[in-house]
From TrEMBL:
InterPro entries xref list: AGC-kinase_C, Kinase-like_dom_sf, PH-like_dom_sf, PH_domain, PH_PKB, Pkinase_C, Prot_kinase_dom, Protein_kinase_ATP_BS
Entry similarity comment: Belongs to the protein kinase superfamily. AGC Ser/Thr protein kinase family. RAC subfamily.
Protein name, entry field: non-specific serine/threonine protein kinase
Reactions this protein catalyses: L-seryl-[protein] + ATP = O-phospho-L-seryl-[protein] + ADP + H(+); L-threonyl-[protein] + ATP = O-phospho-L-threonyl-[protein] + ADP + H(+)
Organism: Ixodes ricinus (Common tick)
Residue ranges of every copy of the PH domain listed in the record: 43-144
Length: 530
């Protein structure tokens, strides 16, 4: 089936999947893709055949798994005969939760844990109850013996009463004075809404600065098993600063909400502009692609994989420069990532290695870059079907097709970025972004001037003021900004010494702004936990 034009992209139930849990789909990674060699000092606790269910393609695959005492659970298509190098699957059972079930297969067990920074459920089955008990016992033993990082411990609340007990905070516990709260901001317009909460344009009262404040419901974050994801990604956001990345200014919490005060840009999503223009010129695509490239180069240098590159996450500032957003503006109540029913990424953008449930590295971002640049220059997705199974099969095996209008340089670049095997993909070597920057398609780019924003953007958004929201969905911007306060007190900041077991040490003050610059000492102005 021919992919539809970008503005006509059909809704697949996951379209516009947006990280409204306070975080982007950023992922920490230690090294580029290389054959994985397990250190010999890690002792084998248990090994044998397991049936593993695919995360995206819901079929069962037989894999030979090896559990080691360092928490690694590695899988192979065949039983290794000469060492345990280059596994197909590489998981960890550190801090995991184990569940047993007899559906969808008898003798099933589920491991819930972290893959990089996303909570993932892995489903396995065996041939007997005895086998299941042996594996569950061994995994639990290894998990219990490993020290679990308190910040990413995955605790599952049991009922509504427990949630109310944990998150009800009396008015007396609210801190005053120097702590930031919602009272520090004037709410102007709703910019977006989603499962976890809403995004609101606001003005900081002390400085007049405009921000997009993302207000998330703690109960929903917990119910969706996004606690570990939210806290881990929040820490990543604090450490990143780049001209082509949306930045985090503050994060704080109220009795029942998490609040992220983010940089606000009003030039609109690239998806919106491409929908209007159908296709971008190669020159315009080159500019956007190059700025995205620099942002990803920075993230990879910080040991971070972005993993969810898509047009909806690429914004323009008022001058026309790209800003990769760690959140999007969602018009549907759609959850994202981290459960067996949802995806860590929009389906059309998933890289083959993610679909195959194999270990992935930085090259996953270069696949995403290939998809978005293909959309810009061709006006459609490289692979598309309304049927998810068909879509995934296309991503895994179909060769990408190019319109005749593309230049040889553009065609060669896209073909290199959309190679199925991440090790052979352009950017998939140890050189990472370096191999892409020297590609002939980018020959005309002065990378130093681009990084300093000295290159004039090919398009400038037609905004008349900083509060012009013409590029946001009018369904939201016309709404009245209203928040329902919790029963325990006003929407105010709370003391993090209060009983908030899931979100302790959540707050953050950036290096600028009225609160950080005016009310704290020089020591307090450091970007550290408040």
């Amino acid at each position: 089936m021919e992919p539809p034009l970008a503005p006509q992209r059909a809704s697949l139930g996951l379209q516009g999947v947006v990280p409204l849990a306070g975080v982007s789909p950023l992922v920490a990674v230690a090294s580029p893709i290389e054959p994985l060699v397990i250190e010999p000092q890690a002792a084998i606790v248990k090994e044998g055949w397991l049936n593993k269910r695919g995360e995206h393609i819901k079929n069962w695959r037989k894999r030979y798994f090896v559990l080691r005492d360092d928490g690694t659970l590695i899988g192979f298509k065949l039983k290794p005969e000469h060492g345990y190098t280059d596994p197909l699957n590489n998981f960890t059972v550190k801090g995991c939760q184990l569940m047993k079930s007899d559906r969808p297969r008898p003798f099933t067990f589920i491991i819930r844990g972290l893959q990089w920074t996303t909570v993932i459920e892995r489903m396995f089955s065996v041939e007997s109850e005895e086998d299941r008990e042996d594996w569950v016992r061994a995994i639990q033993l290894v998990s219990d013996q490993l020290q679990v990082d308190e910040d990413v411990e995955m605790t599952e609340p049991r009922d509504e009463m427990a949630l109310r007990d944990k998150f009800s905070v009396s008015t007396r516990t609210y801190a005053s004075g120097n702590r930031i709260s919602l009272d520090n901001f004037e709410f102007l317009k709703v910019l977006g809404k989603g499962t976890f909460g809403k995004v609101v344009l606001c003005r900081e009262k002390a400085t007049g600065a405009l921000y997009a404040i993302k207000i998330l419901k703690k109960k929903v974050v917990i119910d969706k098993d996004e606690v570990a994801h939210t806290l881990t990604e929040n820490r990543v956001l604090r450490s990143t600063k780049h001209p082509f990345l949306i930045s985090l200014r503050y994060s704080f919490q109220t009795a029942d909400r998490l609040c992220f005060v983010m940089e606000y840009v009003n030039g609109g999503e690239l998806f919106f502009h491409l929908s209007r223009e159908r296709v971008f010129t190669e020159e315009r695509t080159r500019f956007y692609g190059a700025e995205i490239l620099l942002a990803l180069e920075y993230l990879h240098g910080q040991g971070i994989i972005y993993r969810d590159l898509k047009l909806e996450n690429l914004l323009l500032d008022k001058d026309g420069h790209v800003k990769i957003a760690d959140f999007g503006l969602c018009k549907e109540d759609i959850a994202f990532g981290a459960t067996t029913k949802t995806f860590c990424g929009t389906p059309e953008y998933l890289a083959p290695e993610v679909l195959e449930d194999t270990d992935y590295g930085r090259a996953v971002d270069w696949w995403g870059l290939g998809v978005v640049m293909y959309e810009m220059m061709c006006g459609r997705l490289p692979f598309y079907s309304r049927d998810h199974d068909v879509l995934f099969e296309l991503i895994l095996v179909e060769e990408v097709k190019f319109p005749k209008s593309l230049s040889p340089e553009a065609r060669h670049l896209l073909a290199g970025l959309l190679v199925k095997n991440p090790r052979h993909r352009l950017g998939g070597s140890v050189n990472d972004v370096g191999d892409i920057k020297i590609h002939p398609f980018f020959r005309s780019i002065n990378w130093d001037e681009l990084a300093q924003k000295k290159v004039t953007p090919p398009f400038k958004p037609q905004v008349t003021s900083d509060v012009d929201t013409r590029y946001f969905d009018q369904e939201f911007t016309g709404e009245t900004v209203q928040l329902t306060p919790p029963e325990a007190g006003p929407l105010n900041s709370i003391s993090e010494e209060s009983e908030q077991p899931y979100f302790q040490q959540f707050s953050y003050h950036g290096s600028s702004g009225a609160l950080a610059a005016g009310r704290h000492s020089a020591t307090d102005r450091r970007p550290v936990l408040s």
